[in-house]
Amino acid sequence: MSRKKVIAGNWKMNKTPSETSIFITELSDRVKQTKDIVICAVPYVCLTAALKSAKRTKIKIAAQNLHFEDNGAFTGEVSTDMLTDLGVKYVIVGHSERRQYYNETDATVNKKILKALKAGLKPILCVGESLDQREMGVTSDFVRYQVRYALNGVSSEDMKNVIIAYEPIWAIGTGKTATNEQANDVCKTIRETLVELYGRRVANAALIQYGGSVNVKNANELFNMSDIDGGLVGGASLKIDDFDKIVNYNK
Fold first, then answer.
1. Given pLDDT bands bounded at 50, 70 and 90, which one contains residue 65?
2. Which residues contact 71 (CB under 8 A, 6 or more apart)?
3. pLDDT (tens digit, 9 = 90+) per residue, 78-116?
4. Which residues of 190-222 are buried (b: 16+ CB within 10 A; e: fewer)?
5. Does the global pTM surpass 0.90?
6. 39 close to 60: Cβ distance less than 8 angstroms
7. Measuring CA to CA, which residue among 191, 196, 135, 138 is closest to residue 164?
8. d(CA 186, CA 210)
């Protein structure tokens, strides 16, 4: 079946609010003709500037993380109410850097997915294996486990609002990229896992991105694979000319 592509830029800890305004204003002019979903996931301090600049454009704004509690003594964290009050619609959950550097677990990822959906946010769920796991031949088993754990308690109806991003850890920020076939095989494994959980109709409609050194040179071929529905783009999303070309990959 035909699915829209979702092309999301994960800015990580880059750009100031003023730089954000300039970037998104310029980007909005370049993506007017796209039929795909374009998202910029910006730092917390840039959300207000991003939302203002993206108003009445095709660009959606995402947060890069959230907390699974409504409020409390959680210094430095941000709740779903804070995000939705600003007008944020999307949020990245379970990025490998959060798992690696900030001790995110499968259990906390699941809590965040459920909290995001309850608040009306659309989570971009990140899953993916390390180089050791790929070399051991356990990629499929590991990714299946991550997907099942993260989606525990998520209904078929809620799956309409979940985007899954397959991001092999060994390919993030390294310049290494999974081959088109490797990336598509794992995205297909994710879709088959969704078949097991929700049935073929829900699985066929699910949006599954690839993330891992997506760039101008490889975007077109990756995005035209059978089970890859766009990309979660890191470094290339910070460069206006590169991100423009990735979003408009099919021109």
1. very high
2. 79, 81
3. 999 999 999 999 999 999 999 999 999 999 999 999 999
4. bbebbeebbeeebbeebbbbbbbbbbeebbeeb
5. yes
6. yes
7. 191
8. 9
Of 97, 104, 129, 167, the catalytic one is: 167
State the amino acid at position 168 in one-letter form: P
Q: Using an 8 Å Cβ cutoff, are 64 and 50 in contact?
A: no
The rounded mean pLDDT for the chain is: 95
Q: Is the pLDDT of residue 1 over 80?
A: no
A 10 A CB-CB count for 76 gives 6
251 pLDDT tier (thresholds 50, 70, 90): low
Q: Which residues contact 111 (CB under 8 A, 6 or more apart)?
A: 68
| DSSP class of 224 | T
> How many other C-beta atoms lie within 10 A of the C-beta of residue 119?
17
d(CA 212, CA 103): 21
Residue 129, Ramachandran bin (φ over 0: left; ψ between -120 and 50: alpha; else beta): beta
* 24 touches 46 (CB < 8 A): no
- pLDDT tier at 19 (50, 70, 90 boundaries)? very high
Catalytic (active site) residue 95: yes
Domain ranges of the chain: 6-247
Reply yes or no on whether 67 is catalytic: no
The pLDDT tens digits of the residues spanning 155-171 come to 999 999 999 999 998 88
For residue 123, is pLDDT > 70?
yes
- Three-state SS at 17: helix
Q: Which of 95, 97, 104, 129 is catalytic?
A: 95
**CATH class of domain segment(s) 6-247:** alpha beta
